[in-house]
Design brief:
This protein has 86 residues and is mostly beta strands. Helix content is 5%, strand content 47%.
């Protein structure tokens, strides 16, 4: 399955990256195989963090993530959403 999610650009607008699920805060700080990862806002309407139930998000909300040009992860800290909605 090649699901993609919207990654917000610093200057506005979005690009789409392959969704690879959740990663820890520690791993998000490390470079990924395809380039350095960067903290980003992910435009996801529904998420299911590890150990939690589905959470419906409003259209104007984002989830803390990290991304390279082609891949995106939502960031969790010990199964707690980090900067969950902002």
């Amino acid at each position: 399955m090649n699901q993609t999610e919207g990654v917000r650009r610093a200057g506005g607008g979005y690009y789409y990256a392959t969704w690879l699920g959740f990663t820890s805060r520690e791993k998000a700080k490390r470079p990924r195989e395809s380039g350095d990862s960067q903290p980003v806002k992910l435009h996801i309407l529904r998420v299911e963090p590890p150990g939690c139930e589905w959470i419906e998000l409003k259209e104007d909300k984002h989830v803390q993530g990290c991304a390279t040009r082609e891949r995106a992860y939502a960031v969790v800290y010990l199964n707690v959403r980090v900067s969950s909605l902002f």
